[in-house]
Design a protein that fits this description.
Radius of gyration of chain A: 27 Å
Order of helices and strands of chain B: EHEEEHEHEHEEEEHEHEHEEEHHHHHH
CATH architecture of the largest domain in chain B: 3-Layer(aba) Sandwich
Distance between the termini of chain B: 71 Å
Helix content of chain A: 55-70%
Structural class of chain B: alpha/beta
Largest interface: A-B, 55 and 48 residues
Largest sheet of chain B: 5 strands, mixed
Mean pLDDT of chain B: 89
Shape of chain A: flat
Number of helices of chain B: 13
Oligomer: heterodimer
CATH class of the largest domain in chain B: Alpha Beta
Radius of gyration of chain B: 22 Å
Strand content of chain A: under 5%
CATH topology of the domain at 83-93 and 152-362 in chain A: MetI-like fold
Largest sheet of chain A: none
CATH superfamily of the domain at 83-93 and 152-362 in chain A: MetI-like
Number of strands of chain B: 15
Chain lengths: ~375, ~325
């Protein structure tokens, strides 16, 4: 008997009742009495809020002008933001020297881009030293006095560029520190272990606000009477220590995710401790920790606005100072805070997108 | 590996060794502690330039000591940091709307070098309430910012006058103003200098008035470190020179003319006669530079908080002693 040959039926289009807008609405928004109620409430709320909000934000807003007097319409006074934009982005950095801030930001962007673009074998030799040198190069450029440029003292640095640069400088230096602390924490040497554990637990267990206050109010008391360490430098050290503790825990979870077999395999081919750690374990730790590392970076970046409590002129502090200028006393707080929120949201959201893409790129699908 | 070999560049700066006056002359600038932003007293503009009544004190000192009012390095400080910044030598003068109190003067190792603004808690009421004096406020609701000395002042004032009030407190001055504007309270209590700034922020400033009563003492002035009498004298007499300048009728416009052809008192002040500058360790034309570059007290007042500013604060207590106020400079001779 001749076997019956298998012939698949030609594919049929999906039933009309499951495609298109109306079925989608029915399935997703109106599938049950409860869902219908929720949908109606949400739509009603949106209708009540959104038109007024858009009107205030865009249609009745004041877009052009240079002083408060230009804000005659009922809506938002965006003139406030545009008039203060230089302060908001660069602080009081002198007009003619702003290229130095831009150069520093470009260097940061360049180093980040290089770590993606370079072929894998160059990445360790070029990108890693570039990252580690970056904070100090930027420091020299921004300060200027050591490289023959006009000196710009740190009290003039400020605005959004300060938020970005100090966050980047902190996390870059926190990287090696955190790595060493994480190694120390799981080391067999009692001294290294106890020092690491103490540091990690102290800085992780203390709120960043308390640390900033300590850095700005208490720390100067410990210095000799005629020595004062620059405030921004103190803040940077605090941020580095704080982030190191968080990075150490990120790395620890990475170490824990590496199977024992990897360590044993490295031992069996005769690698020493540092060879094993740096060549076999560390690259895998970085890979599994990448999402957490980026989440930590987003955290430190957002934490930089807390610098306003110790009068460092970061972005939010600039807004507060602008609000108290006697020529701008018309109550522009909402515009100011919305703008700061918007800028931070853009940055943090793009970092999340970046994190997702890195995760995909590094995924070699042997997750344990 | 060299990962651990990340050296930290500690830019330690030696700020003062011995006398502040010598240190200021040597480094060529005055470090001045100011607020992070207070309308009319110390505020930044869009270009990052500082202005205000408190700021002018530091500019005046720089003009007197260094001959250039622009040689000031401003350090914004929070209320918590301010005294420590002065004690640790980070700043040379603290000019940050600081109230001169007995406790601060005696227990912090600091000296107050004079008063540049006599402030005090006052009331702002809505015009439609029809109130002309604070004594008519019995039983009213008060908008107050929590944790301020104003809270104590108003409690004392109402108890003394056997009146009652209901306090509605807010965390920030913005919220206090919003509370007042939305009608949650009948009147708003704050320092007089702040009332005017709050009033401008109202949607309709003309609907509110500031009552004449001042119910507490808040004399604001510059502060220096104790045990440095030389510097203390410089700051004290720079403040006095600007007040005396107004009294003698010396302004930034006529200072040059009066230096050459003024009355004896004016010539002494401006350094063309006598040796007032030398006794302070300053150039002979110290007060001339102050008035020429920054202006006398009246000019500074009107420009920053008075009629020439959006705040439009009346001179009141801060007028000269012969014009109904209590601003008085000791004798310049």
């Amino acid at each position: 008997m001749k076997a019956k040959e298998f012939k698949p039926l030609p594919a049929q289009p999906a039933p009309v009742s499951t495609i298109g807008v109306i079925p989608w609405l029915r399935n997703n928004l109106l599938s049950s009495p409860f869902n219908i109620t929720v949908t109606v409430i949400i739509v009603a709320a949106l209708l009540a809020i959104v038109p007024d909000m858009l009107d205030w934000l865009i249609f009745s807003a004041n877009w052009s002008g240079e002083t408060q007097a230009a804000c005659v319409k009922d809506g938002a006074c965006w003139v406030f933001i545009s008039a203060w934009s230089q302060q908001i982005f660069y602080g009081s950095y002198p007009d003619g020297e702003i290229w130095r801030v831009n150069l520093s930001l470009l260097l940061l962007a360049g180093v980040i881009a290089s770590s993606f673009a370079l072929p894998a074998r160059l990445r360790n030799k070029v990108s890693v030293p570039a990252y580690l040198c970056l904070p100090f190069v930027c420091l020299l450029i921004l300060d200027g006095s050591y490289i023959g440029l006009k000196e710009v003292t740190t009290d003039l640095w400020g605005g959004f560029s300060l938020n970005v640069l100090i966050a980047a400088a902190s996390i870059i230096i926190a990287f090696p520190f955190g790595f060493l602390w994480a190694l120390g924490r799981q080391s067999d040497m009692p001294f290294a272990r106890s020092v690491s554990v103490t540091c990690i637990e102290f800085f992780r267990g203390t709120p960043i606000l308390a640390l900033f206050f300590m850095g700005s109010v208490m720390l100067p008391l410990f210095f000799p009477a005629n020595v004062s360490v620059d405030k921004l430098l103190r803040v940077w050290i605090i941020l580095v220590l704080f982030m190191s503790a968080y990075m150490a825990e990120v790395f620890r979870s990475g170490f824990a995710a590496i199977p024992k077999g990897q360590y044993e395999a490295a031992d069996s081919i005769g690698l020493g401790y540092w060879q094993k750690t740096l060549l076999i374990i560390f690259p895998q730790v970085i890979k599994v920790s990448m999402p957490n590392i980026l989440a930590t970076f987003v955290m430190v970046f957002k934490n930089t606005v807390f610098l306003l409590v110790i009068a460092v002129p970061e972005m939010l502090q600039v807004i507060m100072a602008a609000l108290s200028n006697s020529n701008w006393l018309g109550g522009h707080a909402i515009e100011g805070y919305l703008f700061v929120g918007f800028i931070f949201w853009i940055c943090c959201f793009s970092m999340s997108l970046l994190a997702t893409s890195i995760e995909k790129k590094l995924d070699t699908s042997h997750k344990n | 590996m060299t990962l651990a070999a990340v050296g930290l560049v500690v830019a330690a700066q030696s700020s003062f060794a011995g006398s502040t006056l010598d240190a200021v002359k040597k480094k060529g600038s005055v470090s001045c502690g100011v607020s992070t932003g207070l309308a009319g007293f110390s505020q930044k503009d869009e270009k990052g330039n500082w202005s205000g009544l408190d700021v002018d004190v530091c500019r005046s000192v720089a003009a007197a000591v260094l001959g250039d009012a622009s040689k000031v390095q401003f350090k914004p400080l929070t209320a918590k940091e301010r005294f420590l910044a002065l004690q640790s030598g980070e700043i040379d003068i603290l000019s940050r709307n600081t109230t001169w109190t007995h406790t601060r003067d005696t227990s912090l190792g600091l000296n107050f070098a004079g008063v540049i603004y006599y402030d005090g808690a006052g009331f702002m009421v809505s015009k439609k309430l029809g109130v002309k004096s604070a004594t008519e406020l019995d039983g009213a609701n008060a908008c107050i910012q929590a944790g301020t000395s104003t809270e104590l002042a108003i409690a004392d004032y109402f108890r003394e006058n056997k009146m009652s009030y209901k306090a509605i407190t807010f965390d920030t001055s913005d919220q206090t103003r919003a509370g007042f504007e939305s009608g949650r309270c009948d009147f708003l209590v704050s320092d007089q200098s702040q009332l005017y700034a709050l009033r401008i922020g109202l949607k309709d400033p003309s609907a509110a008035i500031v009552l004449p009563e001042v119910i507490s003492k808040e004399p604001l002035g510059p502060v220096v470190r104790q045990n440095d009498d030389e510097w203390f004298n410089v700051v004290k007499w720079v403040v006095n020179a600007s007040i005396e300048g107004e009294f003698q009728g010396v302004t930034s416009a006529n200072a040059k003319e009066l230096q050459a052809n003024g009355k004896p008192g004016q010539k002494r002040l401006l350094g063309s006669e006598g040796d007032l500058g030398e006794k302070l360790g300053l150039p002979a034309d110290w007060a001339y530079q102050v008035i020429k570059q920054v202006g006398n007290y009246s000019e500074s007042f009107e420009r920053n908080v008075g009629q020439g500013s959006p705040l439009k604060i009346a001179r009141g207590l801060n007028a000269q002693w012969n014009k109904g106020g209590i601003m008085y400079s000791p004798a310049m001779r």
